[in-house]
């Protein structure tokens, strides 16, 4: 299980985002956080298709990266007060290109439907990352306000609690509660952030982090089960008389996904999900701040 890797990736990503939000002046700060968001998008774009076991990951990785970087760039240069006006367009183009990549592969190729659905989900995650750039351009953050810091602290608290080696039924609600409490307590210590918006942001980002951590845990369990159930004939421990078709090949799941050599979630997969838990919160943070603070 790669819980520690997930936590480390999430913490590095959120620390870089918060630090870049304090770089000024205003325009320089926007491009600084743009660079961090793009770096996170590239990491996610590389690891995510390999996490879900796409047979042809490179084209999908390219589409995900282009859609995310395009949306982040548009959020940086779009006129206020609507920095996310092009986010939907880049998401739509990304989805279309995902379909094109699978059409180009040709009829009869493995997992075309799964690759299409997974690629569309990846595009959705990265275009949401543009929300961090947009949030940094809002008035409370453009003047080096503390809302970005509070968002980062809430994410970090949820990540740290989720990393505790306890059952998920305990760490999931505790992680969400920690994000809410940290957001509320930190807002009391910072004069320019009201309590209610800080608590709402904590609840939103905490929910995202907890959900992605559950994905890490469940994916690792599925891959581990697949590695035991798909042992090739002749390998000690394989069911006697299991046919070749049912047995599959070592290191592959029943759905055909390529597994890590250890039969569990690979390190790139855990890093991708950890980064995704941060960038996917971007648009949610932006809209909560826009509604409650701006």
Automatic annotation (TrEMBL):
<protein>
    <recommendedName>
        <fullName>Ammonia permease</fullName>
    </recommendedName>
</protein>
<feature type="transmembrane region" description="Helical">
    <location>
        <begin position="196"/>
        <end position="217"/>
    </location>
</feature>
<keyword id="KW-0472">Membrane</keyword>
<feature type="transmembrane region" description="Helical">
    <location>
        <begin position="31"/>
        <end position="48"/>
    </location>
</feature>
<feature type="transmembrane region" description="Helical">
    <location>
        <begin position="265"/>
        <end position="288"/>
    </location>
</feature>
<feature type="transmembrane region" description="Helical">
    <location>
        <begin position="147"/>
        <end position="166"/>
    </location>
</feature>
<keyword id="KW-0812">Transmembrane</keyword>
<feature type="transmembrane region" description="Helical">
    <location>
        <begin position="116"/>
        <end position="135"/>
    </location>
</feature>
<keyword id="KW-1133">Transmembrane helix</keyword>
<feature type="transmembrane region" description="Helical">
    <location>
        <begin position="60"/>
        <end position="78"/>
    </location>
</feature>
<feature type="transmembrane region" description="Helical">
    <location>
        <begin position="84"/>
        <end position="104"/>
    </location>
</feature>
<feature type="transmembrane region" description="Helical">
    <location>
        <begin position="173"/>
        <end position="190"/>
    </location>
</feature>
């Amino acid at each position: 299980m790669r819980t520690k890797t997930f936590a480390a990736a999430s913490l590095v990503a959120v620390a870089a985002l918060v630090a870049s939000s304090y770089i000024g002046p205003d325009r320089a700060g926007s491009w600084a956080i743009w660079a961090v968001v793009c770096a996170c998008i590239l990491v996610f774009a590389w690891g995510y298709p390999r996490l879900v076991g796409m047979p042809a990951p490179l084209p999908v990785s390219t589409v995900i990266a282009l859609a995310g970087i395009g949306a982040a760039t548009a959020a940086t240069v779009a006129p206020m007060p609507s920095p996310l006006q092009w986010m939907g367009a880049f998401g739509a183009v990304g989805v279309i290109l995902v379909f094109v990549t699978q059409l180009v592969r040709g009829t009869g190729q493995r997992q075309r439907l799964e690759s299409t659905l997974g690629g569309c989900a990846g595009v959705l995650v990265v275009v949401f990352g543009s929300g961090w750039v947009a949030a940094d351009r809002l008035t409370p953050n453009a003047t080096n306000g503390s809302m970005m810091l509070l968002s980062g602290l809430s994410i970090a608290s949820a990540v740290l609690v989720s990393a505790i080696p306890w059952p998920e039924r305990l760490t999931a609600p505790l992680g969400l509660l920690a994000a809410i409490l940290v957001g509320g307590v930190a807002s009391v210590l910072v004069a320019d952030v009201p309590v209610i918006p800080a608590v709402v942001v904590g609840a939103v980002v905490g929910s995202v982090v907890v959900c992605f951590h559950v994905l890490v845990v469940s994916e690792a369990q599925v891959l581990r089960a697949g590695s035991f159930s798909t042992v090739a004939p002749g390998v000690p421990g394989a069911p006697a008389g299991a046919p070749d078709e049912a047995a599959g090949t070592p290191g592959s799941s029943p759905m055909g996904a390529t597994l890590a050599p250890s039969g569990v979630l690979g390190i790139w997969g855990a890093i991708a999900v950890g980064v995704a838990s941060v960038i996917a919160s971007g648009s949610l943070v932006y809209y909560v701040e826009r509604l409650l603070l701006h």
